Hints:
The complex is a heterotrimer of chains A (450), B (371) and C (239).
Chain A: E1 8-9, H1 16-25, H2 30-45, E2 67-68, H3 82-91, H4 93-98, E3 104-108, E4 111-116, H5 119-123, E5 127-130, H6 131-137, H7 139-145, H8 156-164, E6 169-173, E7 183-187, E8 195-196, E9 199-204, E10 209-216, E11 225-227, E12 230-235, E13 240-247, E14 253-263, E15 268-275, E16 280-283, E17 286-289, E18 295-304, E19 309-318, E20 324-333, E21 338-347, E22 355-364, E23 371-379, E24 385-393, H9 397-404, H10 410-421, H11 423-428, H12 431-445
Parallel strand pairs in A: 3-7, 6-9, 7-10, 8-11, 9-12, 10-13, 11-14, 12-14, 13-15, 14-16, 14-17, 15-18, 16-19, 17-19, 18-20, 19-21, 20-22, 21-23, 22-24
Antiparallel strand pairs in A: 1-2, 3-4, 5-6
Chain B: H1 4-17, H2 38-42, E1 58-59, E2 62-63, E3 72-74, H3 78-81, H4 84-87, H5 94-102, E4 107-110, E5 116-123, E6 128-136, E7 141-149, E8 157-166, E9 171-179, E10 185-194, E11 197-205, E12 209-218, E13 223-232, E14 237-246, E15 252-261, E16 266-275, E17 283-292, E18 297-306, E19 312-320, H6 324-331, H7 337-350, H8 356-369
Helix pairs in contact in B: 1-5, 6-7, 7-8
Chain C: E1 3-13, E2 16-27, E3 31-35, H1 42-50, E4 56-64, E5 67-68, H2 74-79, E6 82-85, H3 97-109, H4 115-125, H5 143-157, E7 161-165, H6 173-186, E8 191-196, H7 199-204, E9 209-214, E10 217-222, H8 225-233
Parallel strand pairs in C: 3-8, 3-9, 6-7, 7-8
Antiparallel strand pairs in C: 1-2, 1-4, 4-5, 9-10
Amino acid sequence: MQATDEEIRLRKGLDENIVREISKIKNEPEWMLDFRLKAYKYFKDRPMPAWGPDLSGIDFNSLSYFVRETSKKTSRWEDLPENIRQIYDKLGIPEAEKKFLGGTEAMFESEVVYNRVKKELEDLGIIFCDTDTAVQKYPEIVKQYIGKVVSPNDNKFAALNSAVWSGGSFVFVPKGVKVPMPLQAYFRINTSEMGQFERTLIIAEEGADVEYIEGCSAVMYSKASLHAAVVEVIAKKNAHVKYTTLQNWSNNVYNLVTKRSFADENAYVEWVDANIGSKVNMKYPSVYLRGENARARILSIALANSGQIQDAGSKVVHMAPNTFSTITSKSIALNGGKANYRGLVRIMKGAEGSKSTVKCSTLLLDEKSTGDTYPYTENNEKNAVTTHEAFVGKINEDQLFYLMSRGLNEEEAINTIVLGFINEMVEDLPMEYALEFNRLIKINMEGAVA
Amino acid sequence: MTTENDYRIKALEKARAAAFEQDLLFKYYSEGESQLPIEKEEKKEIKYLRDEVQNEIVIDDYSVKIPKDSNIVPISDVFSTEGKEVIETESSDKIEALTNAFFDCGVLIKTEKSSEMNLDISVQKTDKFNKSIIIVSEGSKLRLLKRLSANPSEMKRYYENFDIYIKRDASLDLKMISQINENVLMNSNINIYNEGDVSITNIMSGGKLARSRVNVFLSKGSKLTIKDASFHSGQEIEDKYINVVHRDSNSESRIDLYSILNKNSKGIIKGMVRIKPNSSGSKTELNEKAVIIGNARVNLIPALEVGTNDVIASHSDSSETIDKDKLFYLESKGLNEREAKLMILTGFVDKAISDEEVKEDAVKMIDSILA
Amino acid sequence: MAEIEVKDLTAKIGEKEILKGINLRIRTGEIHLLMGPNGSGKSTLANVMMGNPKYSIADGKIVFNGEDITNLPAYERAKRGLFLAFQNPIEIEGVNILHFLRTAYKAEKGEGKNVIEFAENIANELNLPREMLKRQLNVNFSGGERKKLELLQAILLDPKIAIFDEIDSGLDIDTLKTVINLLEKIKERTGILLITHSERTAEEVDAEEVHVILDGKIVEEGGKEIIKKIKEKGYASYR
């Protein structure tokens, strides 16, 4: 924790002065300081959520709400500081670079230090940068959309994020433009007692098409870490946005994320969410289907190992006629982990012809693992159809025996069934992520057989 | 022995202290707090049960003609004949506690061990606090049909508590048919402690506010089946909550909650199934299905908490309106719209209510909400 | 030359005894028929020989090539060359068939073969469209398609002893003929126990011995003349 030339770390705890300091360090315009201060008031006034997993382990006063590792933003790999390059080496980023996966943006501590946008994107008029840069370079756009999908007063952690946010991605795709490759981001928490408050904003104008992927990895610590991100996605008429997250925080992290999207007429929003890590993960990607014919697809996979609580789910609000939503949730709990599903489907009056389908499955691999399912359906429109089904239980013994009769031992058979169980997610990921994901699952499953 | 007076006083204390909707999970999915005259009732004084008549037991508005030394007696007898474990209950719903404080009618039904008993009872007046206890003794079988029909001109509130104990190797076949007026406020609280087999068939219609709580606690090897259908129209509101706790191994539950809602009615259907960690080998299936027509609305919440892995647990819910293709098909065969709807809805309910005795009343209820 | 021997085998499911002292021996080059009415224990015997943990062995043993395998788990039996074609093969979602076949082959035989090519050729012979191999294991497969996939596995994995539990049900006449031909082809390398309750299938097969099972016991053993007897008198004659 030494203060180097390139490092700024604010004192622990949170008060109005810290918020002002953060805004000052970032050299933000007045309106953004205003935004933060209002949000800070909401944060103070809002109580902790009355439902859900136990969050009493979060000590707000022991966290540092802003850390910056280096003040330079580089656009070439070679320009990154040595220690940071070493960390990224371990994460395998150079390989990714070689495959031209598109603009790669990496975030270290709370700030973006590595930012590289391919010329292709620039030529198409696509903006892909970190949110801090966006506040400086594209204030009109940011001002227009930030806080509109997730209001700073939506919940305590959205308020916290709105007050102290730093980093995150800003994506703007102009009318009719299809982003030629998935945009990616890498995250990293590297010190203890540090909060991570990315603010991501994705705007897809009419007819735009963009896929965004974020995958994370983190180091083990001794004290609890808090990650309270906010992701706002706007999909305008005829637009398509697919947002994929591979979450693998170390298991001392509280990962409390608010992810929400608006989908206008004929727009299509997909949330693909894999939750492998963290101590407590609360994440309910949501879509508000505001325009006629809008569609939502939410795919959520969670793996809860020893000491972990995965409290994942979804929320869809059908506000217009002929809107459709498909939600699939697959969870696995082992070694006493807990995998929960919490979902809301709300069909408002007037959303005629709409349909919502929800399927949840939870595999409990041993007798100590548990899982709760809380689905809420509100149907206010008779000409709309909702269905929901859920299954919770252990691996089917007949399936186990079948595979074992073909020479697979018990561990191999369980792995095969589990990987088959989450196969839907794997098929959805780009190849390198799919391989990494399968590897992560296998590593987590080691020792699953009692 | 608990005296009746002590019991009532304690119950009133409990009622005053209790929150209306106990479970935080359903905080925003709750009706009744504004409709039921709670404040007024909490301030009342304790009253006592009236005496019964000689050869024929007429307990207020339960009219049952059976010999006097049989197994059905006025509820107050429970304080002298039964032990604490029968009188004290685990749940602490506000209205349940109020009913325990002010009950002015009710029966205690207790079967002889290894016997079989058949009983039809009917409740005709509202504005009552009914407290009843049913004990199905070891090895015995009880078939009980309970009808509730409220005279439209009577006063408008009816509360009932049923505490039911099914002992080992015993079975209960409980059928309930409740037709109440659209202005009636009703609260029904049923606690079931099941060590054997319980099968419940329940249909209800009407109620300005029909609130029901069913808590079932399943012991080792016990079985529960609930087939439940509700029919509402007008401005009726139903808040239904079924809570099933699998406390021990090899217990089974199958719950089907069907509703048909018309005009401006609203249904909140909450099903909570909890499988405790020592309930390995247990099975549960919960289905909530709703057909909504007119401007009706429905909230469906089938919750499931699973505490161990050697179980088979599933649930489902669905909501939709009457299938237009089915309507057209039937109309093209000569049925008018009303007849076609009645046929389709009867078919819908048939999956839950197949019992002949109850089906007839169900069809009448569907017909009246289609009006 | 391989051999499996079932000696005085008594097996239960829970408290209920299903097999009551079964004796049976099958060798490479032989096809044995096991026939009996529904509920007689045919499938149970097949499952117990393969090591299904649902059943417990109360008495007796199973010896495979001189080794007592009674307490070995299923995969150990598979690795030693025992195969079971299930009566109702189960669906396993998300498991790609070709991947599964490669994994099973590797587990039992090791590396070496171009499994995909081999599997596709067998699929062809069985009239199973190649595209099906790209699907998920038995998911949305008809009964007949599942049986064909079981047979494909039998040929691919080249076991020493193979048990076929009602491979004939759900198959049309032509496919059945193909299947029987294939069985007779592989019997040189693989000892076969063919379970069926169809006399017609039994008649078509060139079997060395016929065993009749009733209520968990073998009630008759002999040549193919037994089939005629069953055709004429049914199983009632054994009671």
